[in-house]
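Exercise 3.2. Students should predict the tertiary structure of the chain below and write it as structure tokens, then compare their answer with the key that follows.

Predict this chain's 3D structure.
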Amino acid sequence: MSSSTDFSWADFLTRTIADFGCTTGTLHRLDPADKHLKLVAHQGIPEALMPIIQSIPVGKGIAGVAAERREPVEMCNLQTDTSGVAKPGAKQTQVQGTLAVPVMDGNRLCGTLGIGKLVPYDFTVEEKERLLGVASGVAARLLPG
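Answer key:
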């Protein structure tokens, strides 16, 4: 049996990705000092993208837009998306169906949680609500200090 000090963000992300039948994922923590989302854990992200996703400005890219809007941001097929929300480099993930949600502690933004599939996919309302619930369940733990 593990104590709460043994909590691993990588394990949390791996379980969340598996629970949703996905292959990739990211977890970012909001840094209030510079209003950037700082990478906490990732899975299935190409090494070439790591410098780009280490620090994401709120409002930029899929995670940044989810943080800014404080609501889920979804793309059925990232590879063919023309909305301008996804950054050009995001296509390198080979992810198609993607969903990012804000990690909220009440009304306070703590970060973002994103998952992706390698096939085109429309996440259901129930899946979006479930991922929001997973995210809010760890929000207080994601905050520094």
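Discussion points: Residues 45 and 92 are 9 Å apart (CA to CA). Residues 1-5 have pLDDT under 50 and may be disordered.
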